[in-house]
Amino acid sequence: MKPVLLWMGLILGALHANAQRLHAGFDKEEYLRLLEITDYGKDSPWTSPPTLPFPENCRLLYRSAEVGLSNRWDLWLLDSAVGIISIRGTIGRQDSWMENFYAAMVPATGTLRLNDSTTFPYRLAADSQASVHVGWLIGMASLAPSIIEKIREYHGKGIREFIIAGHSQGGAIAFLLRSYLYYLDEGLIDPTLVIKTYCSAAPKPGNLYYAYDFDYITRGGWGLRVINTQDWVPEIPFSIQTLYDVNPGNPFSNVNNALQRAPFFARLYLKMVYRQLDGSTLAAEGKYRKYLGHSVYLLVHRSMPQLQEPRYVNSTSYSPAGTAIVLPPYPGYAQAYLSKPGQAFTHHALGAYYQLVLHDY
Prior knowledge:
- There is one protein chain.
- By secondary structure, the protein is α/β, with parallel strands linked by helices.
- The chain has a single domain (25-360), classed as Alpha/Beta hydrolase fold, catalytic domain (Rossmann fold).
- It has ten helices and 13 strands.
- It has a seven-stranded mixed β-sheet, with helices on both faces.
- Strand 2 (73-78) and strand 3 (82-87) form a beta hairpin.
């Protein structure tokens, strides 16, 4: 009987593998559909005309209400088998832009008080040193309840595979959402779900320890970051690294010991230089946290008057996350997408990414 059972197991395994639609790694056609879906979800009720083709074999199932800081998401179905969670990016409202500028960091595990009746506990990384962008965390926390509700609803209808996708701000939120779903209690989300993440033109979501964690939980090609090398958005938020952002045990943590064998005057000089450099980075980080933390919170508070200001971490050492899918310019790209004064988002636009994929892949 054992050989028979073995063969049956192999056959069933092969059938399951064939039934799975999503696979690790970058898929050109998959990503193009996601850009098209993003184009059709830019605004409601689609008052900004799409410029990309309508996504083939896709249909819109659900559009969320606007919550948080003008955040919204759509649920699409691809080939009647794969749910696509498409997170809208920045729109032309002050609160949506303030979400981006609210760039102080908070711990990757904690609690947000969104209003007087809503407390949002979250865990986005296993490492206690991990921290994330507070503005995009608020966006993710505002969207997560309805996303979980729809995942469970459509899981009950037989959908076992999902793509989380977003462009720009939507891509930043996609990072945090994927992490949040990974660390949820098993009772809320079926841990056997297949989830793939595309963070398109996304800025940096958190510090290096968060990036390590994201890359680990999506290892093998399940968490992708797609970048146009001419686009400035993936290069922000600006990062200031201080001594306190480096793992303990480094030689800089005890300068006296590190310079013990140096000549006396050289030791004095190097200590002076070190103190000045260390002091300048700490001062810059403090100003960054002050102006992009509490000062922006006061503006965000106008849109979310019951939002409780969180406690920020003493760090602004941002790092990219995800497996990089790099889109270099093709011959003629510079002429087609020439940067002009007042057109800061030429290389960030959906059309630029779409054409780069068509040429590079």
